[in-house]
Design a protein that fits this description.
The complex is a heterodimer of chains A (about 425) and B (about 220).
Chain A: H1 6-15, H2 20-36, H3 42-59, H4 61-69, H5 79-87, H6 97-108, H7 112-115, E1 118-119, E2 125-126, E3 130-136, E4 142-148, H8 152-170, H9 178-191, H10 194-208, E5 213-214, E6 227-231, H11 238-243, H12 248-268, E7 272-273, E8 281-283, E9 289-291, E10 297-298, H13 302-317, H14 320-329, H15 341-358, E11 365-367, H16 371-383, H17 396-413, E12 416-418, H18 420-432
Parallel strand pairs in A: 5-9
Antiparallel strand pairs in A: 1-3, 2-3, 3-4, 4-6, 7-10, 8-9, 11-12
Helix pairs in contact in A: 1-13, 2-15, 2-16, 3-4, 3-5, 3-8, 4-8, 8-9, 12-18, 13-14, 13-15, 15-16
Chain B: H1 3-21, H2 27-34, H3 38-44, H4 48-67, H5 78-95, H6 97-109, H7 116-130, H8 137-141, H9 145-163, H10 171-189, H11 192-206, H12 208-215
Helix pairs in contact in B: 1-2, 1-4, 2-3, 4-5, 4-7, 5-6, 5-7, 5-10, 7-9
Classes of the chains: A alpha+beta (about 425), B mainly alpha (about 220).
């Protein structure tokens, strides 16, 4: 069985001859051949994107969640998709102030003026299924209150049914979309249960709140299924942080905490924060990483998760036999690539992309600010065979979202991180399951 | 709110609860429940029916009282102000849901019903619309009794929806209020009628018909 030992890294490095640079050249070469062999897909992507979002905008509230679930907003799909998303006014308007008051009264029994010392009627964050308000308790403690838009839970079933029809009409006939859609539906329904989210907040607070990471604390007595109250985490989001032109060591500091937070979740083989969206992370004034929003947390089946982690060293080692075996186990391939030309094309793409994706684990440090690497990832996403049927185990929806989210966050931050500890951690986990 | 009004509301609330137990309750039994003399009740209401009618009217007095508690209410948009009125009424009705289910149609919907609730409701709407400076000029011409009466009719529809609402915590009724008020705001804030009027006026002044009028 494949593990993640350092010796395999060394072999990966040897294979890549002089390490990272050659690895990049190799990946770039593949991309060029891919581009030469195909027509410009830009127009096709744009048309598909318009089709998808034209329909998605009709779904409103939960549409954004569905799009997020399929990593549409994280650059997984071609650039044309994100351009169309912006044009399609894919934004969620805030809940009207009177409705906020009414929901609080309905759920907590009193209007906000009587419950809190101070309540800001302007939302500090608005998302697809709810929005967050800042308030102060009578004892002076600062809190955040998440309020769910009425009727969201009731519309999920019908929105998902529409999305199912939409995907089936876009994807080739006979594509198996149901397991993916069902997985998204289950997760979405759970995301609308704020009691469940409150419990997740507590579990993550116990596991991760330390001198480097801060997570909120749940306040159950002021929470219901539709209103969630938690302690307030002060800080700025990625965009605002970058506006202040932070020095490189500062970027590296936060990047390292983010990278380590991600890998520490793997260590426990427990739940994973599966909504790696920049809006869910804060840079606190005391140098901590604030992790908020625990609506989407996932615990993956162990066999899937271990096989997913094995993809990293296996790609780096270029062990084709092992890669093929893993792809079959993870349902990435539907036929033998040696006898099926379409499968061969898909296999080649995944193999090269997988290697590029595993690159940060090649050496003892990795610079996510490297523009060449950013272009490489972007070019792979541009050339991803998105118009073919969906592939891979249904759990890829969220592992991809988490992992891609991590990379995109670090690339935007431009952080250089040390991978020594994370590689040891992965090795430990994989050795345990060898 | 003065002491007297508070007492009247207290009597109305108690009568709503009493009505569910016995819809033919007497003023004496109500006075006994409230631990006051029947003459006190008769000092404010001529009969039992007037108390039940006042229950509805007093919900709007509570609404007016609630407005004083809201920070920044004057900055609310048209939709926010309107929905605040409806949410508060629904909230008040919810506390006496059984009573409202039994009496709303008879006391508010019926053509012969007392108009205290309707008058106060229309006045509240008038205040909301007249204080709003964002309403487009042409749409302002459409403000008036007809508009308020028509919103009052729609309000009946909303209450009938709420009466039959099976969703948890009546979230569907809350969503309906939000969407309805947003639509009204969209219509009243829209500048499209202003632009259309301006455009038509321009075309008219350029037309031979306009020149003929100015010559004559």
């Amino acid at each position: 069985m494949e593990t993640f030992p350092s010796t395999k890294y060394q072999r990966g490095k040897i294979f890549a001859k002089t390490g990272f640079k050659v690895g990049k050249n190799y990946a770039e070469h593949y991309l060029k051949s891919l581009a030469l062999g195909k027509k410009n897909k830009s127009e096709l992507h744009r048309k598909t994107a318009e089709d998808v979002f034209g329909e998605f905008t009709k779904l409103r509230g939960t549409a954004l969640k569905i799009a997020q679930s399929f990593s549409i907003d994280q650059g997984f799909l071609p650039t044309e998709f994100s351009e169309v998303m912006t044009k399609a006014q894919y934004k969620v308007p805030p809940i009207n102030k009177s409705l906020v008051r009414a929901i609080i009264k309905q759920e907590l029994g009193k209007f906000p003026e009587f419950l809190f010392n101070d309540f800001d009627p302007e939302a500090i964050a608005a998302a697809s299924i709810g929005q967050v308000h800042k308030a102060t308790l009578k004892n002076g403690k600062k809190i955040a209150i998440k309020i769910q838009y009425p009727g969201v839970r009731e519309t999920i079933a019908s929105d998902i049914a529409l999305a199912r029809t939409l995907f089936k009409s876009i994807l080739p006939r006979g594509s198996e979309v149901d397991p993916y859609i069902d997985e998204v539906k289950t997760t979405l329904l759970l995301e609308t249960d704020y009691i469940s989210e409150g419990e997740s907040i507590n579990r993550f607070h116990k596991r991760f709140s330390n001198e480097k990471v801060i997570t909120p604390e749940w306040i159950p007595e002021l929470s219901t299924e539709r209103v969630l109250t938690m302690s307030f985490v002060d800080g700025v989001h990625l965009d605002e942080f970058l506006t202040g032109n932070p020095a490189q060591p500062e970027k590296d500091h936060y990047g390292q905490i983010f990278w380590d937070f991600f890998h520490n979740q793997i260590k426990d083989r427990d739940e994973v924060h599966a909504d790696t969206h920049p809006g869910n992370f804060l840079f606190t004034p005391d140098g901590k990483l604030g992790v908020i929003d625990f609506g989407c947390v996932k615990k993956f089946p162990e066999d899937f998760f271990i096989n997913y982690l094995r993809l990293l060293p296996t790609h780096l080692n270029r062990d084709e036999k092992a890669i093929l075996e893993l792809y079959n186990r993870l349902e990435v391939l539907k036929d033998n690539p040696e006898t099926n030309a379409k499968e061969k094309e898909f296999y080649e793409f995944c193999k090269h992309y997988g290697f590029t994706f595993a690159m940060p684990y090649l050496d003892d440090s990795f610079d996510f600010g490297d523009n060449e690497y950013k272009d490489l990832i972007r070019n792979y996403t541009r050339n991803a065979p998105v118009t073919t049927e969906p592939r891979g185990n249904k759990h890829f929806i969220y592992t991809t979202r988490v992992h891609l989210g991590l990379y995109h966050f670090l690339m935007k931050l431009g952080a250089k991180i040390s991978t020594v500890q994370s590689k040891e951690l992965l090795e430990e986990v994989l050795t345990e399951f060898a | 709110m003065d002491k007297e009004t508070k007492l009247k509301i207290k009597i109305a609330d108690a009568s709503a609860s009493r009505y569910i137990e016995n819809n033919r309750f007497t003023i004496q039994s109500l006075a006994q429940q409230l631990d006051i003399e029947p003459s006190v009740i008769f000092g404010h209401f001529p009969n039992r029916s007037a108390i039940l009618d006042y229950f509805y009217e007093s919900r709007l007095l509570l609404f007016a009282e609630d407005l004083k508690q809201i920070k920044g209410y004057s900055d609310f948009s048209l939709s926010e102000k309107m929905s605040n009125l409806f949410y508060l009424l629904i909230d008040q009705f919810q506390q006496h849901r059984e009573f409202v289910l039994l009496t709303y149609k008879e006391r508010i919907l019926s053509p012969n019903c007392s108009s205290g609730f309707q008058k106060t409701f229309v006045r509240s709407l008038e205040e909301i619309f007249s204080a709003d400076v964002q309403i487009s000029s042409t749409a302002s011409l459409c403000k008036g009794r007809f508009l308020y009466q028509s919103i009052f009719c729609h309000f009946h529809g909303l209450i009938l929806f709420w009466m039959n609402d099976q969703s948890q915590n009546y979230v569907n009724s809350m969503a309906l209020i939000d969407k309805w008020c947003s639509l009204i705001e969209e219509i009243y804030y829209s500048k499209i009628i202003d632009r259309g009027f301006d455009f038509t006026k321009f075309l008219f002044y350029q037309s031979p018909f306009s020149k003929m009028i100015s010559k004559s």
